[in-house]
Design goal:
The structure is a single chain. By secondary structure, the protein is α+β, with helices and mostly antiparallel strands. The protein has 2 domains: about 190 residues, BirA Bifunctional Protein, domain 2; about 40 residues, SH3 type barrels (Roll). It contains 5 helices and 12 strands. Helix 2 packs across helix 4 and helix 2 crosses helix 5. The longest helix has 20 residues. It is globular and about 55 Å long. The chain starts with a strand and ends with a strand.
Amino acid sequence: MRWQYIHLKEIDSTNNYCKENVTTLSVPAFVYTDYQSKGKGQQNNLWYSESKKNLLCSIVLPIYFQAENNHHISQWVSIVLVSLLKTLSIPDQQIKIKWPNDIIINTQNGYKKIAGILIENIIEKNNIIKSIIGIGLNINQTDFLQLNKTATSLKHITQQTYHIHQVANTLTTTIDTYYPLLHLQKFSSIYYQYIQYLYGWDTEFLFKNMGNQIFKGKITGIHDDGKIRVQTQHETFTFNNKEIQFLL
């Protein structure tokens, strides 16, 4: 695909920039910045990052399918990032996706987050026409302050220093490879690749629900609306995003 690249030294949020300029951007567009003053994660959580240390970007893609299928975009971006990390020398067996789309790495100190995704779609007449996909990928940052127990980076894992611009180019090349799956609505293929890396897929581990009850279960399916199905020893539950916490 022919990409429009926009590099900003500093911005409040690349997703906000894309939403404000979505009618004038040539798609596909790749907007990245050295520093985000108000970077956003899921549920309006802030995404903190040292300047010029990580890849902070938003991608605007042309998409046309029903809004009810929006969770397939999340699965698709997740497998794109898994592929990117493998290209950047992260061992395949260390990479997992924590539902719905956090990318985590198995380290000596347990699973830690290396990338987060925030998706905001442009919808007309119940159809998604463009998707704004925000990605924060920890690359060269090694000190995450109060998040040291839960965050990691490429440099932490491989002991290499990466050029952010080169990682950005590798990401767009990876998107080019995987985009036909999304464009042609190959949802079954996306799903199959996604569950290969899904943390807790058909494997028992600990959850905490909104009532702070801790229980053991395993993910056994994802419904058409994107909710997960969790099987315990005695019954099956269905959860939406943020209705359940994974105890890594």
